[in-house]
Design goal:
The chain is an alpha+beta fold. It has 13 helices and 11 strands. It has 3 domains: 110 residues, no CATH class; 191 residues, Ribonuclease H-like superfamily/Ribonuclease H (Nucleotidyltransferase, domain 5); 71 residues. It has a 6-stranded antiparallel beta sheet. Helix 12 runs antiparallel to helix 13. The radius of gyration is 31 Å and the shape is elongated. This is DNA polymerase III subunit epsilon. It comes from Bifidobacterium pseudocatenulatum. Keywords: Exonuclease, Hydrolase, Membrane, Nuclease, Transmembrane, Transmembrane helix.
Amino acid sequence: MKSEFRHGWDKLSGIHEFNVSTSSVISDIDVRGSRQFTGCAVVQVQQPKGRKPHFAVKNSSDVTVFEVGARQTSAYSALSRLLGDPLESFSWEEERSYAGDGTTFLRCRAVVGSDPKAVTGPSIPRIVLDTETTGLHPQFDEILQLSIIDGDGNILWNKLYHPSFKSSWPEAQRIHHIKPSDVRNKDFIEDDLVQIQDILNRAEQICAFNAEYDMAFLGEIGLRVDTSKIVDTMRVYARKYHGRDFIKLTQAAKECGYRYNPHDALEDCKATLAVQNKADGKRTAGSRRLMDAAAKAIPSTESRPKTQANVRNVAMLQPMRSTTSHRRKNKGIPWQAHAALFAFLLLCALTGLSMIFDQDHSNPLWAEVVTELIFIGLTVWEWDNMQKKRKQRIAEKREQGQDAPGGE
């Protein structure tokens, strides 16, 4: 697993790590060396003159073993998210600074106890989730869209979010087409953590395509998940059918006979479900439940803005048919046949011209002239057919999402 994903992934299990300068830590004990404590809790320590409060770790005897102020941004941010949570353990190791100036820093590790929140609803056998983000780095980028469906394709969650720090994301926008104006008046995802956590708690299995990526983003915002429930659909499918770990979602969905509009979190969820079902050995190409789910709108969820780039007829979500009769009905003569016919007509036209202007035919018969004109006309007509066929092929590829940039 990539280190940038490991940080958020560890947080899913309640493991929070951060570094802080040894000299900036306030403690009732000696902070040098390596120390470990159990039965701790994070508390807020108010400061005089309206200054930001400190965050401290206290042991079961109410002794302050670790305290930092707002200037230690990494440690401060990590502890602020653990406020009120019981810690199974809190530890650190002192290491020398990489700058070589003789200073040291503490590599800290806080392990949160089991999530005390009880499940508030019936269990869900399977959920599928996907995100659209401002970039590819969970520690620095933010979630713009989160979608969750169940194993039958029913929408459980689908909302756009206003990022807390990012104001623009041009590279990511080029792929998923979510503009800053689309999320300007939306909620912050932190406001919905309780509801999202409840869905994750109720799920018996959590599927995601390239799960390390999406789950790292969820971990970074403080969500908790039993990682044994997570299934990486990409790796399951790619290993089973291609003997490798990576495959794009657009390619896998195409192989499963599922057509969709990629780079929308909700549509990617439905495509992931189709791929996971095939990997499970389920026949889902004719499933009406998944197709009907594409047209449903849950009142409590929020749809992505309707733009020319993502509005598609629901019929496009129908699986592709590959029978010969369907090809004849919708595509007509294959382009190879048009090319062969054009080459034949062009050869006839050139042969006719050479015969008309041959030295032995200085006075060509009118029949030869008329025949030649017919061949020239047919050649031009067939050239026009070839161009139309070429444009049709390009349009079909765009419709299937084969030319979408940065396909997953």
